[in-house]
Predict the 3D structure of the following.
Amino acid sequence: MANPTSSLKEVGTELAPAPPGREHGTLTAWIQDLIFTVDHKKLGLMYVGMAWLFFIPAGILASLIRTQIAVPNNHVLGPEAFNQAITMHGTAMIFFFAMPMVFGLANYIVPLQIGARDMAFPRLNAFSFWTTFFGACFLFLSYIFGPGLYGMGAAPDASWFALAPLTSKAFSPGNNIDFWSLGLLISGVGSVTGAVNVMVTIFCYRCKGLTLYRMPLFTWMVLVTMFLVVMFLPPLSAAQIMLVLERFFGAKFFEAQAGGSAVLWQHFFWIFGHPEVYILVLPAFGVISEVVPVFSRKPIFGYPMMVAASVMIGFISAGVWAHHMFTIGMDSFSVTFFAFATLVISIPTGIKIFNWLATMFGGKIRMEIPMLFCIAFLFQFLIAGLTGVMLGVAPFDWQLNDSYFVIAHFHYVIVGGIVFAVFAGFYYWYPKAVGRMLDHRLGLWHFWIFTAGFHLTFDPQHFLGFLGMPRRIYTYQEGRGWEFLNMLSTIGAFLQGVGAIIFIINMIYAARKGKIAGDDPWDAWTLEWITSSPPPEYNFEQLPEVRSRRPLWDLKHPEDPDWRFE
Amino acid sequence: MLNHQYTRFSLATRGSGRGWLLLGFTVVAFIGFLSSAPVARAQDSTIRAVQNIFDPLSAPAETLYSISLLVMAVCAGIFLIVGGLLTYAIIRYRRRGPEDDREEPPQVYGSAAIELAWTVPPILIVVMLVLVTARTIGEIQHHKMPDAAEEIRVIGHRYWWEIRYPKHDVVTANEIHVPLSSRQNRVPTEMVLESADVIHGFWVPQLNGKTMLVPNYRNTMWIEPYATGIYLGNCTVLCGQQHANMLIRVIVDPPDVYQKWLDSQKAKPVNDPQTAEGQRQFISNSCGTCHRVEDSQATGVFGPDLSHFASRATLGSGVAKNDDTNLRSWLHDPQVLKPGCLMPNMQLSDRQVDAILAYLRTLK
């Protein structure tokens, strides 16, 4: 029997390191390439670029929101502009920052990790990207098109929940809501086709020997995510089609006066909305599950349980949506059921945290920037999970629901969890995509300032919730006990902005002057590190063959390969 | 000319209450809880502006408070254990220098026993929390009201609250008077929550958790305050531009004071001949299309009932103090104090404003 690692070795040794930096073509050629490319790596980078592109306006909106409520009776934004800002901030961060980031990472990393040359349907891949991108552009054009009230543009202003019947013609007469529903419908098409593409790629294009049971955890979690996208994005699209029918053609799904039900919208929205949290957080778990083992120098502890926990989270997430609706006046049986389902989901999530912890135990943890972000992630996600338990206990939720505590909780999940994981993934995979390392010193500045800003912003918001501050208010009176905490939170928001700017500077600086990375700068174990950095268009000169979960470990330790123990 | 500046009033509070918020809110909350015995007999104008959920002053809020303490204790325990292990792992197993790179650490792939061991405790904790949750839900949602219970209907409108007392045939707005209860002589207040337009949310943290007001649905909640005073709260569901200023004031009165208030609300408005001009202006400028004043041609239902407007302490659902300056500003242009509210600028002259103001002041 041939040595199973020999084919890997050939690939690893034959490829000369590709020269970093790209060829200098003309601008026209570059734009043409952007438009016509079907290469999964370019599309992946375009997704990621789109995510950062929309992160900027959404972040600016966040700082405007925080400035408006930094002090009582403030006048930076009027009520209409404030409602537009919170709606656009939420919508853009979820659909045009986090979702494209998930798809971008999946697009770039998954084919490399499974030893494929490209996605299953490269042209569908390009279609998915462009529909998502145009949906996002359509939504943001609402600020320009249409005069709207007070010349503020016609940006959506009903919050990202867009609770019916506030969205009906009677209460939102302009085109604001139409921009929202149509923009998300368009980008939703892109997300579903993209998810199908990734699923087919994972199921049909794995290289020889890469069984599902040997698949890297990032790919596994992306797979579960894509199932969730295919199952739970359509309810949102359906609800938006209903909303469009109602607003343009006089249908009466949600209009109470005509016999519709305002509660119906919430069921549709949240049966999408809650799994959406897992759509975003599972790939983040995937990143953590890649970074923690490599920097602790140990394989992931309890791989089968990690996979099982992800699949369990995927399944249970389908049955918890009404915990967003505990205050809607449900009967006590439903409330109890959804509280139960919500608390149950904390079990597989807890298992994951324990597994990461056990992976670190007994290791030799290298405190590189990706690992620092992972460690912060673990602490913050632990807190986010525990505040989630507090919210899951329905009677406690009756106090906390729709208050700043909820804002603090889900920003702990989305910023403290997902964004930190994205940063970890960026410092980890940037050398692979660009060929140069992100700067360590700037990375430290970025990490510490952003982390401090994050805690200064969101820690006080828990207490604002305890003190009765409801979400989505554009102003408040003095004496409610909210002034000091709001001011802290606003200062923190700007500190986060500084951290984000340092990160952008680091990306630009490293692309030109960063240290040359080489094929495998982190001494890692999955297949993407066997090819050159950046990888050639065909990814691998010769398709690799694997026999274990850590093909590069086998290659580097022929005397002690993993496949003996799996 | 009238001064159209954006006047706001700041609320008097018990102490500034800032420093302790971050440090020891639970401790203070507990002391507050102990010291809130129901003894007040006279009108109490304490404004309870800082609505700490850990300082409950009403029966259901106390139930929520006790389960929240249990849950937070459990969560704090988990945080200390897991966070402690995490800190230990980071310190103990960090790379100490280049000598650590010579050899990889022992490669451990997992352990069924360990994994089982850390799966069981979370399951037990979840079972415990679910049981406690179910019991608390039952306690609050299936609570049996005593016969003496007061009943009110709260109807949410875009940016104000309509309050009806079906037992007493009283209608008012924004300022909700309810009787004081005590553990010996229970007088809880049952609230039926409805909406006239979009979804709103009713939340006064020291009295109870929040419940949504959904059009076409009749939600209920109950409160049973043990301390007098004026409790402030907010609408919690985004309902449009003035969601932030859809404020709630619940005024808890001792029984005799409450009865006096009910009697005053049942009294017919005095038709003072001195303000007849104001009343004429009120009607001829269409104010009565939206507002109702008892015993007059004003029978509107879209805006707050003004029959006893002068007895209320605030304007525009709590946005400003009900004094002459603010009322004059409001009558000139409501969009100054509450930009985006549904009352339009009626283009009244100074003379008309003065007349209407004088008339409104007689509606005690």
Summary: The CA atoms of residues 239 and 547 of chain A lie 46 Å apart.
